[in-house]
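Data card: per-record layout.
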Amino acid sequence: MAGGGLLLLLDDIAALLDDVALMTKVAARKSAAMADDVAGMTKVAMQKTAGVLGDDLALNAEQVTGVRSNRELPVVWGVAKGSLVNKVILVPAFLLISAFVPWLITPLLMVGGAFLCFEGVEKILHSLHQRSKAHDPVQEAQEARAQGLAQSSVRQGKELGMDPATYEQQKIKGAIRTDFILSAEILAIALSTIADKPLSEQIAVLVAVSLGITVFVYGLVACIVRMDDVGSWLMHKRSSALQSLGRGLIAFTPWLMKGLSIVGTAAMFLVGGSLLVHGIAPIQAWVENAITPQGGAIAAIVPLLVHVLVGAAIGGAVVVLLKLWQQLRGTASTH
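The structure for this 335-residue chain is written out next.
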């Protein structure tokens, strides 16, 4: 009897192990299928955000340029960490908003777009004001070396009556704020492609997109800001071809940085304006019904011009309103 009971027990254990093995196999297949689905959806989401990714790259590369060379990578890493924190906040926030108040996404993106356009107008006005003032580049360079800062931070800090080190920290914080708005748009676009999927898959795709764009953007930004160092390294090689390539990189880097500054400013109006236009029904309807069907260059260029014009107009209006508000507060405080 004891032997028979033991055999029955062993038989039950064997049957249980077979069931566990079968369920594990099924679960593994389902997990693999889900992983394939998530990978496919992530690829689609990344493709749809490609345009914003380009603007994100230009804006962030432009924001961290002008930093002293030995601090470029630490600054890029600092902004990248801030970008990850942004996405830790944004992913659950977008999932909650999408689940309970989906109508709120567009107004929030429009607020972000208005802020980007405001910063763009401020940047242009500051650049025009800066050109009208005389500078002493030699003195600024000496102060920059003494403080371990970028020469541009010394100059612009003085213009604003700020300590240059404080100004540089504010510049980094500004880069993180800009990243927050761009990340919000990227995640909103990504979420729109998977709105009908289960919550677990939405979370997986948004996390994958967040990590992917952070690594891509800031990895490429790090490469861009260290391009001159690569050129210097190549110039010490024995090969004359490599030396020529190194000289070319060193000569090209300042022009690239200037180009990124222009593209980054334009991207503020392109991204901010597109967020605003998508929330202004008459303008969006006109673009979709009158411009897009024409195809070709008109369908490609005119919407971008509309985004820039709307962004510049609203950004300028925000600047004027803010200046009026500051004047009113100043007048009220004197009475």
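Known properties of this structure: The two ends are 103 Å apart (CA to CA). The chain has twelve helices and no strands.

See the next section for split statistics.
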